[in-house]
Amino acid sequence: MTDAYDEPAGIAARGTVLVAAGRGETAEIYARFGRRIAADGYRVRILPDVTADPGGSLAAAEKLLADDALPAPKVIVGPDAGALLALTLAARETPGLDALILAGLPVPRPAIDLLGWDAEIEARTACPNHRRVLGEGGASLQTDLPAELLGAGDVRLPTLGLHGDADPISPLGEARGRYPGTLVTIAGGRHDVLNDVSHRTVAATVVLFLERLRLGADLPAIAQVRRP
User: Tens digit of pLDDT for each residue in 48-106?
Assistant: First the structure.
C-alpha cells in the first residue's frame, strides 16, 4: 500500500495535495484519486482514517505542510471526517496551508442508521470499482466524529466544496450551510463523492480549482463560457 503519488518524471510539480481520509478509510481507497491528480503534475500524500488518532493526524498534516521539499501551493483534500480535519487546520491558520477541498462534509450526527455492510456500501457509492475496494478495506462510517475536529471557526482560505445531491449519510440540505467558499453539487452523487460514479468529473473539478489557485483569484479564468 502506498500513501504517496508523485508527478510524472521530467515534469515540474505544480503543487501538493494532501488527502485526509475519512472514517475507517485506508490510503488504498484513494489510490485511483491519487494517481489521477499526480498525473496532472501534483504531488499527492495521503493520511489514512483521521478519526483513529485525530491529534496524530493533525500533527502529521502540519509536518507535511511545513515540509519545504513539497511544492506550493499546498491544498488539503478532506472527504468525510477529513473535511473536519481540513477545517480545523484552517481555523488554526496552520502555516503552509493554501486552500481546502471539502468532500461529503459530515453533519454533526449521522443522518441515517446503516443496517449492515451492504446498506453502508449502497449509501456510500454506486461505482462498482469503489464498491470492490471498500469490500476489501472494510471502511466503516459507524464511528463517532471526534470532538477535536468539530470546533472549526471562520475559514479565510480559498475553499472548494464537493457534495453529492443524493448523499444519505450527510444530506445536502443539512450540509450545504456548513460549507465555506464555493460549493459544487454532483447530480446523483452519494457520500463518497471523490470515488462515486462521477469520479472523473469530480477529479476534473478538483484540477480546475488547483489550476485556478495557481493563477490567483485576481487573474482572468483560462476557460470561459461564451454564449451565442
Answer: 999 999 999 999 999 999 999 999 999 999 999 999 999 999 999 999 999 999 999 99
For position 112, what pLDDT does the model report? 54
pLDDT single digits (tens) 99-125? 999 999 998 765 456 657 888 889 999
- Grid cell digits, residue 202: 469530480
Give 79's strand partners: 103
pTM: 0.92
d(CA 42, CA 116): 37
CB-CB contact of 16 with 41 (8 Å)? no
* Residue appearing with cell numbers 509536518: 63
**DSSP states along the chain:** ---EE-PPTTS---EEEEEE--TT--GGGGHHHHHHHHHTTEEEEEE--TTS-HHHHHHHHHHHHH-TTSPSSEEEEEETHHHHHHHHHHHTT-TT--EEEEESPPPSS-SS---SHHHHHHHH---HHHHHHHHHH---S-SPPPGGGS------S-EEEEEETT-SSS-HHHHGGG--SEEEEETT--S-GGGSTTHHHHHHHHHHHHHHHHH-TTSPPSS-----
